[in-house]
Amino acid sequence: MSHLLEVKNLDVKFDTDEGQITAVENISISIDQGEVLGIVGESGSGKSVTAKSIMQLNSGNTLYNEDAEIILDNENVLKFTSKQDLKKIRGGKVSMIFQEPMASFAPAIKIGNQMVEQLLIHKNINKDEAKSISINMLKRVGIADAEKRFNQYAFELSGGMRQRAMIAMALSTMPKLLLADEPTTALDVTIQAQVINLIKDIIKEYQMGVIFITHDLGVIAQVADHVAVMYLGSVVEKGPVNEILKNPKHPYTKGLLEALPDINNLDEPLRPIPGNIPSPLDRPTGCVFRTRCPNPCDNCRNGNTEMGLIEVEPGHWVDQCCINCG
Amino acid sequence: MSENLISVNNVSVDFDYQENFISKKQKIHAVNNINIKIKKGSFFGLVGESGSGKTTLGRAILGANKISSGNVIFHDDETDYDLTNINKQDLKEYRKKAQLIFQDPYAALSPRMTVRDIIAEPLEVMRITNSRQETDDRVRDIASKCRLNLEHLRRFPHAFSGGQRQRISIARALVSNPKFIVADESVAALDVSIQADILNLLKQLQNELNLTYLFISHDLSVVAHVCDIVAVMYLGHIVEMAPSRKLFKNPKHSYTKALLSSIPSIDPENKSKAIELKGEIPSALNPPSGCVFRTRCPNPCDNCRNGNTEMGLIEVEPGHWVDQCCVNCN
Fold first, then answer.
1. What does B221-268 look like in DSSP terms, one character per residue?
2. Which of A206, A228, B33, B95 is the most interior residue, by most CB within 10 Å?
3. ipTM over 0.85
4. B4-227: what CATH class?
C-alpha cells in the first residue's frame, strides 16, 4: 500500500544576500492514514520549513532540489505550479494549525466568516450549508454556545478557545493530512491537556494523517506514533515513539532526554547539551552534530563522515556517523 | 537580624480599569492578600497559569508596581526597608540590591549597545563605580562568572544565541552586586538543552554570590528541580505553599493536583490520566465569590459551590500551607 504522504530526499535552501542557507537537508519521511508523526527539535532545526514545504508555503526565495519528491496521494506536490493545483493542497487535502492562534486569525473579520470563506473555496456548497458545517465543527471541538462564537472576533476568545476554533477551521474541509505546528506551545498546561485530548479524539474519528511539530518531548510521548528527531536541518533519528524515547541511540536524542527536567526524579542533576546550535550560515561539514557531540571519533571531528540514516532495529533509523563512531 | 530577606504582609495590588470613557471605573484585583516570607539564600518558586498574578506580585516586591494595601519589607543587614513607605534615597539603595531578569532575551537587550555597555549600564546609572577602569573590571569579573568570553564584550546582542543572550541579561542583573533577584520566566523562551544550562548557572551563582531568588515560572518540572519552596498561585491568590519536595510528592490543593497531572509524561506507555479541569481561568474583572477556584474545581462541596466559603491559608503540616476551602471540602 502506498503511503498517504511520502517525502523523499528533500533539500530546502534559502537564497539570501549572504549566500544560500541550507534549512533542510536530505529528509525522507512518510505517514500513513490515521498515523501521527511527531517532529522534535530545537529552534532552527528546520521542523517548520519541512512542514511548510508540503503546502508550498515557504517564502519566494526558497530553492528545492531537483530530485526531491513530496508525494501526497500519488501526486508530486513540488511539481504543482498552477493556482488551481495549489488550492487543492492548501486547505483542501492538507490543513495547518499554527502556534499562535491570535496571529493566525484575521483580527477584523468574524471567526464565522473566516470559516465559511475557506469552505466556499474548497467545497462545492452554498453559504448556509457552510455555516451549518462550521457551527457543527465548533461544537465538535468543545466550544460552548457555538452560534454566539461564530459571530465573534478572534480577540473576544481566550487562548484555549481560539486554538479550538483554529482546529475546527482546519478540520472543516476534511483534510487528509493535518500539519500541527507547535499547536500547544502557547497554552497553559491545563489547557494544553484539553487540546491534546481533543486532537487525539479527532484523529481517531476522522482517520487523518498528522504531522505534529513540537519541541516538547512530553507532548510527543502522549500523541505521536512515530517520531523524527531533527537537528540543524537533518533527521538524526527516527522510529516508533516507544523505541526512540526508551532506547535512544543518537547522542542528540539522549542529550535532549537528559536535559529535560523530570518531575519524578528530582535528585538527578540537569545535564545540558554543551555548546550552542551553530548558525545555519556556517553549517558543520560532515556530521552536523559533531560540534556538540560528547564523544566524536577522529573522522567525525575532522568533518570527514557522511550523514545518512541506517536501520539499527526494525523501524528504528539512526544517523550512521553515530553508529560508526561508537 | 532576621533570617528572612523579604517579608510580604497582606499585600494586594489593584489596577484601575475602565472599559470605555463612559463606563464606570472598576478595580481589578490582580493580587489578593498575599503573605510570604522569603528566607535568605533560598530559591523561592512562584507557579501558576497566565493571568494568575505571578508577575504582578514579583514586580510589587521590586517596587515596580504600586502596592494597594499591605506592605513589603526588605531586611538588609542592619536596616529594614518598608517599600510601601520608602523615600527616594532608600529606593535607590534598594534598586541596587534587588534586580530583575526578564523572560525574553531577544527583547530585553538593546540592539544598539555592545555587550560591555549593556552590562556596565547599571553601574553607570546607579553611580556605583568611580572610574572607567573600575567599571571595566567589574564588567569583566561578572562576565566571566556568567561564562561569557571577554571577546564577547565587544560584540552586539544580535551575534548571540538565546542562551548566550540570557547569560548577558543575568550578568547585567548581577553587576550591581544585588542580594535579591526576581527571575521572571527566565528560561521559558529557551530550548530544553539550553534551559538546563541556564538553570545550572543560576544555581551556581546563588552559591558563589550568596543570592536569594524569587523564581517565577509556569513550568512545574523546572520549578521542582531548582526551588526550595514553592507557592502556587491562582487568580491572584496563593492556594498552596510548601517546600518543593513536599508539594510535588504530596499536593493537597485540587488545583495543584490538576496542574501536576497535566504535565505530559515522557513515557509513551504512561498515557496521561490528567485530571482535566473544565473551562479556563476566569477573568480577574469578575472573579468568583468565595473560593476563586470553585468554578473549575473537580469536586467542590456545597458550601464552596454557592460561594459561601472564605479563602485563607492554613498549615496542614509543618511548612505546608493550603487554602482552607480545599481542606474543609474534602
1. HHHHHH-SEEEEEETTEEEEEEEHHHHHHS--SHHHHHHHHHSPPS-T
2. A228
3. no
4. alpha beta
